[in-house]
Amino acid sequence: MVITINRPEARNAINSAVSNVPYRINTSNGQSTSNSFLAVQGDGWVNVREIRAVGSSSPLDLVWIDDNTWQVQLPVLPGANFVTLEAYDLQGQLIGTDTVSYTGTGTIVPASADNLVISEIMYHPSSPSQAELTAGFTDQDDFEFLELLNISTDPITLTGLDFSNGITFAFGSSTIAPGGRALLVGNQAGFQARYGGGRPVIGHYQLADANKLSNGGEQLTLHDSIGALIRDFTYDDKLPWPVSADGSGHSLVLRCPEANPDHSLAINWLPSATVGGTPGTEDGVLFANWRAAHGVTGQATNDDDLDQLSNLLEYGFGTDPLDPSSAGPTASLITDSGGDYLALAVTRSLTATDILFYPEISDDLVTWSSDPLEITLFSSLNNGDGTVTEVYRSTTLSASLTRQFIRIVVEMK
User: Would you say the pTM of this structure is higher than 0.85?
Assistant: First the structure.
């Protein structure tokens, strides 16, 4: 049987059934709302396949109220909001563009790249204990988790967020208080067996033996409710990423999370100070609290024990600020790939998460560089006592240089 489609007749039939209206937004501009989302309506013909916020490649959740009327939910930020929506047809071609404006008067803010970070990743947990095996949890992946942190001074809503790479997960209605944390866990029963209850778990993502974090590293992508990127980065289980997070029981912990660091840079991640990580709780000790706990009376740049290490360096190195025998970094030549390179070994505290800590190299003591093409992380050893010993080396053979200098920079954030 041969079916012949007469396109003009088909179009006339569609026009007779559904009025051909131009794409547009009908919701009036200038509305005020205290809610976190606003229902926005408009018109469109049958050729409207999807609607996106400008700059986003992800379509909005589109509801057709009748043959020509669509509705989407848009996030509401405090103050003035201007959102441009684009309509695309079945071939992915842009049909039309329109903008709506409204004012947010509420206190709960939609999650965004400005206020939400992924603060901890347990992608390769340690093996099950005998008690966990007896309870039926035979796979170490049963204890995976991701921790989210609100770094703003406003409560934020996670409604409409979704992970699309690494794991897939669509968020329901959840709110995180200022400075608060939320947990997505792989297997909720397994997580509770290892960590107990009382933690801010908002959902689980594993589906039978699927939808798990990769033990070898992978891309994680998190979008907001209108498809804009919140996080898109790739973690790894190889240097320069913290290797002790790969199966030994430590998690990846974001350093200086309140500064909203670039998640894609390995230098912004540490292994957790303790086996098992710290899901749902603070990962480090602030410098001010460290000072009080150690009886330090001086400020960051002072040297209370007169060992030529400032109090800030003692905090960063995990040494005793009142013990004058504390040792700092040591320089040496190391052999790698048949050549000798200038290197610096440094032990650092894994609980000092509110500082920047990075190596630099120079050939004149004037111009310093932390470019990974010039200085690289050679080895990393988790000491199991809340510190890690790292060795950084130059990428230039020492034999080709007349002089070279290397140092560690510690900065308070």
Answer: yes
